[in-house]
Design a protein that fits this description.
By secondary structure, this protein is of the alpha+beta class. The protein has helices at residues 45-61, 69-85, 87-101, 105-125; strands at 8-9, 11-13, 16-18, 25-29, 36-41, 132-133, 143-144. The protein is built from four helices and seven strands. α3 packs across α4.
């Protein structure tokens, strides 16, 4: 569980729930009433490095690396179906998102709906990514192949 007795929301890195760098944490308050919602592990450079290393390992040697596009599509669509069935979790998640971000409950529900839609969209596209030929003359063959570039990190 991401909570281990102390109510701290941990980060998920390399298959395990971990505390913030140096045990750092940040208090999250409900912007509507100022009430304490939770303490969250505060990631720093060391956590980022660890997460990137875990992602690279997963990308290069993970179970997804050898999957054909049809199998990737099936996996993403399976996640989409699980998200669609998880209405109770979405209700709880939307309420928590509303409390910690100040979004309306309707906007929080919409965010959970959008998450499911992304899996549906990319699941449908996974086996339809194709390359293309570029005519350069009779003595040349030129084509593109779309493939994953690698791991990236974003600050959101």
């Amino acid at each position: 569980s991401r909570f281990v007795g102390d109510g701290l929301v941990r980060n998920f890195i390399g298959g395990e729930w971990v505390e913030g760098d140096g045990g750092r944490r940040i208090a999250v308050e409900d912007p509507g009433n100022g009430m304490h919602v939770a303490d969250c592990a505060l990631a720093g450079e060391a956590s980022l490095d660890r997460a990137l290393a875990a992602a690279r390992t997963s990308f290069e040697r993970g179970a997804l690396a050898g999957l054909k596009p049809g199998a990737r599509a099936a996996l993403l669509m399976r996640i989409w179906r699980v998200l669609r069935r998880a209405k109770i979790d979405a209700e709880d998640g939307a309420e928590l998102l509303c409390r910690e971000s100040g979004k309306t409950l309707a906007a929080s529900h919409e965010e959970f709906e959008e998450a499911a839609q992304y899996f549906e969209y990319y699941g449908g596209a996974a086996d339809k990514i194709e390359g293309k030929s570029i005519p350069l003359g009779p003595d040349y063959v030129d084509y593109t192949i779309y493939e994953p570039y690698g791991v990236s990190a974003q600050i959101v």
